[in-house]
Specification:
The complex is a heterotetramer of chains A (743), B (242), C (482) and D (184). Chain A is of the alpha/beta class and 743 residues long. Chain A is built from 25 helices and 26 strands. In chain A, the strands form 7 sheets. Chain A has a 6-stranded mixed beta sheet. A 6-stranded mixed barrel of chain A has the order 19-24-21-23-22-25. By secondary structure, chain B is α+β, with helices and mostly antiparallel strands. Chain B has a single domain, classed as Alpha-Beta Plaits (2-Layer Sandwich), CATH 3.30.70. Chain B is 23% helix and 12% strand. About 4% of the residues of chain B have low confidence. Chain C is mostly helical and 482 residues long. Chain C has one domain: Formate dehydrogenase/DMSO reductase domain (Formate dehydrogenase/DMSO reductase fold). Chain C contains 20 helices and 2 strands. In chain C, 46% of the residues are buried. The N terminus of chain C is likely disordered. In chain D, helix 6 crosses helix 8 and helix 11 runs antiparallel to helix 12. Chain D is flat and about 75 Å long. Classes of the chains: A alpha/beta (743), B alpha+beta (242), C mainly alpha (482), D mainly alpha (184). Chains B and D meet through helix 6 of B and helix 9 and helix 13 of D.
Chain lengths: 743, 242, 482, 184
């Protein structure tokens, strides 16, 4: 879009708000207070007072849902789902809706900044709602910025240059990947808090062990009749929430002859479990046992020989260990055995344990009992995105630990960070922040003044997702291969620059193999080079004779996808004959409570700086603007705790103080804390709000190298302090507090 | 006040625009709440006020607990928004006619610029879905860039509530008129319905038997209209399912 | 009156007639006449002579009003109602509690003077004015409170019907509109009713004052000279108003009660609310009157002559009866609501008693029923100013509690349990205190500007009463007036 | 002392004082009202009369009116399209701001005079489609140089016309006098 857009227009219009009072009291027309700036040159597709719609891709998580953004007079007004995109079919989650509060967030990095590590990037204020406060001003121009990057590339050995990237904006990852392959700089590392809590490495490894090939399993919830979910919170943030929610709707569809059932095995009722027909408060760490036990019982009911995989599990023992009545197990097994479309999903906290891999394998094997591989309502391999050769998963925390070590040991001289906030997201024990001291030069491309940007020597802000070009591969959630395309829906609001452009320009400056590695004029040209191959592919959603037309369609429809189902069917030849060691998980740290951190469904990894996400009540507790610890009312009573009492949670790794929420649907021996808050930077709405549960996590991993985030035991100490949580629900109405019938 | 025949009517469709909400598939993900806030310039009020029952949500998702652990169950999420009653209790009590019934669209209007803030309507609304602007809540620059120009930005002392996205209704009607046709069912929908990932919310003409809402209403017979025993003739039908 | 005296003290019947007459004289103002001129000068003195204490109190109150009422209100208008304690679901708070409370207070004035005037209750004569003043000043506070309540008070004029080309009109279906009209009517008529009996006294004051006061009284006295014709007209006017204002008074508080009774809310939608509110208003009003009288008698000069034990005794008896009536209506309301069996109403009643504010519910019953019943049955106690003062105080607190329970506490419970929430007052407190202070301030001011005692009425009564001797028997005879 | 004040006011000097006070108040009020009703200062003293005189249609410069809610202000590009062919543009003082803005690529800041409060949702298209002419509301621009409002757009003005248009057609009247038609 042209840069002539006048974006101040609407601010002026907002001024009318002030004028309104004057009008109400009848003193004069609003014209006193408003100034109008016409376009210098109005784009032909635009008309005064009429909206223009742009298709692009949501960057709030890695799922890659398509968006259509309504813009008016060069302002983004509303984000809607892209009805064409097969992944989300016109739907969005709350975070997708609130993405505009990121674009117009009062705290963004407004231009390239050279700054001292640890210095603030914006002023603070006592009351973020009353006081005005400024962002740090840009103190260098983009030419110097590009030069800085170029120097960094030239100055150090390729092996001393590293890129740490987020899970969004795949095109940038591809660009850096190309750069690394052709110049020998260390391959880019991708990471995101969501992928950490999704234990993607574990899923992939389990698939590899069972089916012989690595890949991200796809669970066709919509087609199933009975879904056994072992901790998979697929209605909240797991993998691709929007498409899985659509699947859930399909499962429940009332028009269907038989209404599908969802059984959730979890120690704490997530909002997914809240929707389940049955919630089984399983003892943490026994998921594998239970899965196998159910499998065995189911097979026994069917009769016939007992395969090796299920032979060495004792249902009675599993029942006693997991705290589930054997009758219940039998009932469930019966349900599973007799259902026409049974499906078992491993995920969430179940995998984030020392035996996570075993759990994943056990649960996936359970599907073999239902024999649903590659069938509707069964297990598939997710379709690979159009320009994707094989499934690339983000780094597991183990790999991040190694990477952090490299940083600490000074093996990396210059670190480029984009789209990820490791200082906040990684467990404190990994000491990423400290490791940065080993790096000579940290260059952040952060859009927002987040914790990692604070630790950088330079911040060269990238555009917000809605201001930038790019594409995002849909790794799972859609039957068809989908490449969601991004385009700017508004002209950049601040003096930011696309990181791809910066890198390309810097590479040219650096010359040599860098220049030859990125022989592009700009980001768009690079995109074309990446998208061009799709023109030759068959049965696409659209096709075009020449690249320009193709790119035009690509932007118009918000990406490119095939019209055919490309999900792969796992090969399950000898799945029954593997022997699965059904172990119980070990838990680190002494303390009487299992500790379950979970991703806040509304705020997730990066939503904390968006005020409306903060004000969305949590689906289960309806708490807004804060972090809480969920404790079973019975336990709370034993401990003499009531709501809003501040307690200290002590783990082997650290301790946190936060208020109690008496949660009726959690095991008495378990406590849970949502992840998403507890920022020490990241803008006025995020900073100093709540606590970050990753501070409690120790460096324990499962066999697949994923963090055993649910593998901790913690202690609770009273502090005697109180901190009222603001909740939408009524204490009286919902808990009978003050009605003489207090719980 | 309500004549018997009217109460009978409440089992049929009385209004013009209506909604059908399937609680069985509503996951409580809050997408509708966010969408509503973004579409209608609803302000956020911060931690203190939102904790004191002053949040401005036009639609809220209610859920209750049944039973004790381990047999505890979460009741089906219940999105609660203005039911656009055919015979609304909020309307007669407003001394300034700021809360009036739109004869043209059969909606309960809230005329912000006529409201003097007696808050009688909110008291009298059995669904408690009206929110009051207790202060001039700050939305610092440049957040105001996101304001929807089709919706008035409310100031302190004014009552507000769900409008069934009347600005979208008008836009659709205007477009249809300019193209010389009638508004087609599904041509547009409210922000909440548009966002809902589970498609639990359906919006449309309840007076048109062929519209999707009417069909859904027929499909699941067992629809519930909240507190219709009060004779408010609500236009939102809920399906508990299960 | 005579009969009542006989019954009251049989002991005196045997007493020696002469001393009996003495006794009756000092007991009853009506039988203890003084020359008119003397009474006039007594009243004038009570206005003129002001101790430094008066000014101290006056200053303190002025400060309270300036801060509590006007400054706080300014803040609230600028900030919005967020500074008050109202929230969802308690959209209405102490502002309306105070409105109802003050309207209640204002009732007693009119009730006492009008009803007692109509029924020719002689003991009313000295304190009708003191009571009527409360009506007017109480209504002023009620007006303040209801305007505070509005979210955009600067647009209050929209509630008044005025011609415009915008097809805009106040909604005559809304109880609030009825309320507005009723209260305005009441304010006007009660002011008139205060003014009419005042004219002769103003004329009297005019003839006895100099300087600006003379101008003041001259203007207000409308050149009243006391000719037969003028008196005849005045009497007519007063009679008309006395009769007319009684239905107005009843209607006003009934309409106030409709603000609640007409709403579709559990606990509010009750048909007994009309009379219940009226009797409640009288209950608090009488309490207020007796407090005022006690203070006036205690603080102002010569008042011990005009206001005597018999008056406290009479009002206290009325209070006792009203308190019984209130108890009856309360029981009726509670009983019917409870028996109705609506689950929300049950929830509400349960919340009243067992909820976090339960103490207030019990306090209300004790203050409004137990206290008056326990004290006022005893003639000695009910004739003692400081005792009845305390009783009156308790009753007023109790009645304020009643309104508090009906409005914010009942609002906490509705048909959407998800929204139930408690109400914690904020800036309402300074504002409420401000209105109270303003009420007292106005009253103090008035006590120095207009004669608190309607001398002509007292004198009229005294002329009508006389002690007659029948043999050894002394009896009181009252001759018909006009 | 009040009496003394009255006495003082009664004598001629006092009366004069009162008179002056009243006059001041009145003139202040008059000035205030007058001030709020003047047409505000515009960056260019744009002569509508000339342009209309050349026979340029309103919709040529304000095309939005026929298409959507806002009539809009023409872009500099549109002005320049003609003006860069007119020699006078180079010399004319009146046009200096335009020239300057086009060269410096900074938009002109116009002040709209035909303004409705933001709680009124006005749509030009519907009115044009209903056969209303621009001058019905905006007055005869061929007689104006700098745009001014012939009248304040208050609710009375709108409703008067709406009622006139609806006439006997009850359905139309309902629609055109429905609060929700303009306020949401």
């Amino acid at each position: 879009m042209s840069n002539n857009f006048s974006r101040r227009d609407f601010l002026k219009l907002a001024g009318v708000g002030a004028a309104t009072s004057a009008i109400l009291t009848g003193c004069g027309p609003a014209s006193r207070y408003v100034k109008r700036e016409p376009y210098m040159l109005m784009p032909e597709y635009n008309y005064n007072g009429q909206s223009t719609y742009y298709a692009t891709t949501c960057r709030e998580c890695a799922a890659g849902c398509g968006l259509v953004v309504r813009t008016s007079q060069g302002r983004a007004i509303k984000a809607e789902g892209n009805a064409n995109n097969p992944l989300n079919l016109g739907k969005t989650c709350a975070r997708g809706q609130a993405t505009l509060h990121g674009l117009y967030n009062p705290n963004r990095v407004r231009g390239p900044i050279k700054h001292k590590r640890g210095d603030r990037l914006y002023e603070t204020a006592a009351d973020p709602f009353e006081d005005e406060f400024k962002d740090a001003d840009s103190n260098m121009n983009w030419d110097d910025a590009t030069q800085t990057v170029a120097d960094a590339l030239k100055k150090y050995k390729p092996s001393e240059i590293a890129f740490l990237m987020g899970t969004t904006s795949d095109h940038l990852f591809d660009l850096v990947a190309d750069l690394s392959t052709q110049t020998g700089i260390t391959p880019p590392v991708r990471f995101g808090a969501l992928s950490m809590f999704e234990s993607r490495a574990t899923l992939a490894k389990a698939a590899e062990n069972l089916f012989g090939e690595s890949g991200l399993p796809f669970f066709d919830v919509g087609g199933a009749q009975v879904v056994f979910s072992f901790g998979a919170n697929f209605l909240e943030t797991w993998l691709s929430p929007v498409s899985y929610t659509r699947g859930f709707a399909g499962l429940r569809e009332a028009q269907k002859k038989q209404r599908g059932k969802l059984i959730q095995f979890e120690s704490r009722m997530s909002s997914t479990a809240g929707k389940a027909d049955e919630w089984i408060p399983i003892r943490p760490g026994t998921e594998a046992l239970v899965a196998l036990a159910i499998g065995r019982l189911a097979l026994e009911m069917r009769g016939g020989p007992l395969p090796r995989a299920f032979s060495d599990i004792d249902p009675e023992d599993a029942a006693s260990k997991s705290g589930i009545k054997i009758e219940t197990l039998q009932k469930l097994a019966e349900m599973f055995a007799n259902s026409t479309g049974a499906l078992a999903i491993p995920g969430g906290a179940a995998l984030g344990q020392s035996n996570g891999l075993a759990v994943a394998e056990a649960v996936l094997t359970l599907n073999a009992v239902a024999d649903n591989f590659g069938k509707p309502g069964g297990v598939f391999f997710s379709a690979l995105a159009p320009n994707q050769a094989m499934y690339q998963r983000p780094a597991s925390v183990k790999e991040m630990q190694d990477f952090t070590k490299k940083l600490a040991d000074g093996k990396i001289k210059v670190l480029f960070v984009h789209g990820v906030n490791p200082v906040f997201e990684l467990p404190a024990v990994l000491e990423f922040k400290k490791a940065l001291d080993g790096v000579e030069q940290v260059i952040s491309f952060a859009t927002f003044p987040d914790e990692t940007a604070l630790e950088a020597d330079f911040v060269f802000p990238d555009h917000h997702g809605l201001e930038s070009w790019g594409y995002q591969r849909v790794v799972t959630g859609s039957a068809q291969p989908v490449l969601s395309g991004s385009q700017p829906v508004v002209s950049p609001f601040y003096d930011t620059r696309a990181t791809a452009d910066v890198l390309i320009a810097a590479a040219q400056l650096a010359g040599g193999k860098f220049a030859s590695a990125l022989p592009f004029k700009d980001e768009v040209e690079f995109l074309q080079s990446k998208v061009a191959p799709l023109m030759s592919e068959a049965d696409g959603f659209f096709s075009a004779p020449d690249i320009n037309t193709f790119m035009a369609y690509f932007q118009q429809y918000g990406g490119w996808w095939k019209t055919t189902d490309a999900r792969l069917v796992p090969t399950t030849a000898d799945i029954f004959n593997r022997s699965l060691k059904a172990t119980e998980a070990e838990f680190a740290g002494e303390g009487e409570f299992f500790f379950v951190p979970f991703v806040s469904p509304t705020i997730a990894e990066a939503g904390a700086n968006k005020p409306w996400l903060q004000e969305l009540p949590d689906p289960t507790t309806t708490v807004m603007w804060n972090t809480w610890v969920e404790i079973n009312p019975v336990t709370a009573e034993e401990l003499g705790l009531v709501d809003d009492d501040v307690v200290k949670i002590v783990s082997e790794a650290g301790e946190l103080e936060l208020p109690v929420y008496r949660y009726p649907a959690i095991r008495p021996d378990t406590i849970a804390i949502p992840f998403g808050q507890g920022h020490t930077a990241y803008g006025r709405y995020a900073e100093g709000r709540g606590v970050n549960p990753t501070d409690l996590l120790g460096g324990h991993f499962n066999e697949a190298g994923d963090l055993a985030f649910a593998g901790m035991k913690v202690k609770i100490e009273k502090t005697g302090k109180k901190q009222p949580l603001s909740r939408l629900e009524s204490m009286m109405g919902v808990y009978g507090v003050g009605l003489g019938e207090e719980k | 006040m309500i004549r018997p025949e009217e109460i009978k009517m409440s089992t049929e469709e009385t209004g013009k625009w209506g909604m059908v909400i399937d609680q069985d598939i509503c996951t409580g993900c809050q997408a509708c709440v966010a969408a509503c806030a973004m579409e209608n310039n609803i302000t956020f009020v911060g931690e203190k006020d939102s904790g004191y029952g002053r949040s401005m949500h036009w639609i809220r998702i209610e859920r209750f607990w049944e039973g004790e652990y381990p047999e505890v169950k979460m009741t089906p999420n219940q999105p609660m928004l203005c039911q656009q009653c055919g015979s609304a209790t909020c309307e007669p009590v407003c001394p300034a006619f700021a809360t009036v019934h739109s004869q043209a669209e059969q909606l309960n209007l809230q005329v912000y610029n006529r409201c003097v803030g007696t808050r009688y309507c909110a008291n009298n609304c059995p669904y408690q879905v009206r929110s009051f602007n207790w202060r001039d809540y700050k939305r610092p620059e440049p957040l105001s860039n996101q304001f929807n120009p089709d919706v008035t930005v409310r100031r302190r002392g004014v009552m507000e509530k769900c409008t069934f996205c009347i600005q979208r209704i008008h836009k659709a009607q205007d477009t249809a008129k300019s193209e010389g046709r009638e508004v087609v069912d599904g041509e547009f929908t409210t922000a909440c319905a548009q966002a809902c990932p589970a498609s639990a919310i359906t919006f449309g003409r309840v007076d048109d038997p062929e519209s999707l809402v009417s069909q859904l209403a027929r499909a699941h017979g067992h629809g519930v209209k909240h507190l219709e025993e009060l004779g408010t003739l609500p236009n939102v039908t809920y399906f508990k399912g299960g | 009156m005579a009969g009542y005296n006989k019954k009251a003290e049989p002991a005196h019947a045997k007493a020696e007639s002469h001393s009996h007459a003495e006794h009756l004289r000092e007991k009853h103002l009506m039988l203890d006449p003084l020359p008119r001129g003397q009474m006039n000068s007594m009243v004038m003195e009570s206005m003129y002579e002001t101790s430094w204490k008066f000014w101290v109190v006056f200053a303190i109150l002025s400060v309270i009003v300036a801060y509590g009422l006007f400054y706080s209100w300014g803040v609230m208008i600028a900030e919005g109602l967020g500074v008050a304690g109202v929230n969802r679901p308690s959209y209405w708070g102490i502002f309306l509690v105070n409105t109802v409370f003050w309207i209640g207070i204002s009732h007693a004035g009119t009730f006492i003077s009008a009803i007692l005037r109509v029924f020719k209750a002689e003991f009313r004569r000295p304190f009708t004015r003191a009571a009527e003043l409360m009506t007017t000043f109480g209504l002023v506070q009620a007006g303040f409170s209801v305007f505070m309540h509005m979210g955009r008070v600067w647009l209050a004029y929209w509630l008044m019907p005025y011609a415009n080309q915008r097809m805009l009109w106040p909604n005559l279906h809304s109880p609030l509109t009825w309320d507005l009209l009723a209260i305005t009517t009441y304010l006007l008529s009660s002011t008139m009713y205060l003014f009419l009996p005042l004219i002769p006294d103003l004329a009297m004051a005019r003839d006895r004052s100099t300087g600006w006061r003379k101008t003041f009284y001259k203007t207000l006295a409308l050149g009243f000279r006391g000719t037969e014709g003028e008196w005849a007209h005045l009497r007519n006017a007063m009679n008309i108003f006395a009769f007319a204002i009684i239905p107005v008074m009843f209607s006003v508080h009934t309409i106030v009660s409709w603000d609640f009774a007409a709403a579709t809310r559990p606990g509010w939608n009750s048909s007994i609310f009309g009379p219940y509110f009226v009797i409640g208003a009288l209950h608090s009003g009488m309490g207020a009157v007796i407090m005022v009288l006690a203070v006036v008698r205690g603080t102002m000069k010569h008042m011990k002559y005009f206001i005597r034990a018999e008056h406290f005794d009479g009002i206290a008896k009325l209070m006792l009866i009203i308190s019984m009536a209130w108890a009856y209506f309360f029981f009726n309301d509670y009983m019917v609501q409870w028996y109705g069996g609506d689950k929300w109403t049950h929830q509400l009643l349960h919340f009243h008693e067992a909820g976090p504010m339960g103490w207030m519910w019990f306090a209300m019953l004790i203050f409004n029923i137990a206290v008056p019943w326990a004290v006022l049955w005893n003639q000695k106690w009910r004739s003692t100013p400081w005792i009845v003062f305390i009783v009156g105080f308790f009753i007023n607190v109790g009645m304020w509690f009643e309104r508090y329970i009906i409005i914010p506490i009942s609002l906490s419970i509705n048909r959407m349990p998800f929204t139930w929430r408690l109400y914690e007052p904020g800036i309402e407190i300074p504002l409420g205190i401000g209105t109270l202070a303003f009420f007292i301030l106005l009253y103090m001011g008035a006590s120095k500007l207009i004669p608190l005692i309607p001398v002509w009425e007292v004198e009229e009564g005294q002329m009508a009463h006389e002690l007659k001797q029948f043999g050894r028997e002394t009896v009181v005879s009252v001759s018909e007036l006009e | 002392m009040i009496k003394r004040l009255f006495d003082w006011l009664k004598q001629p000097l006092g009366l004069i004082a009162v008179g002056i006070a009243l006059l001041t108040l009145f003139s202040l009020a008059a000035y205030g009202i007058n001030y709020t009703q003047q047409a505000p200062a515009q960056p260019v003293q744009f002569p509508h009369t000339t342009h209309v005189g050349f026979g340029i249609q309103c919709l040529y410069c304000h095309p939005g009116a026929a298409k959507g809610p806002a009539a809009g202000i023409p872009t500099e590009a549109k002005c320049w399209g003609c003006h860069n062919q007119i020699a006078k543009t180079e010399t004319s003082l009146l046009l200096a701001p335009l020239k300057q803005s086009v060269e410096s690529r900074t938009p002109l800041e116009w002040v709209p005079v035909a303004q409705v409060p933001d709680f009124v949702q006005f749509n030009h298209r519907a009115h044009i489609a209903a056969g209303q002419n621009c001058e019905n509301c905006h007055g005869d621009m061929s007689k104006l140089t700098v745009a001014e409002n012939p009248q304040v757009f208050n609710m009375g003005f709108c409703l008067a016309c709406h009622k006139k248009v609806a006439g006997e057609n009850h359905e139309l009247l309902v629609k055109l006098t429905d609060c929700g038609t303009c306020h949401y």
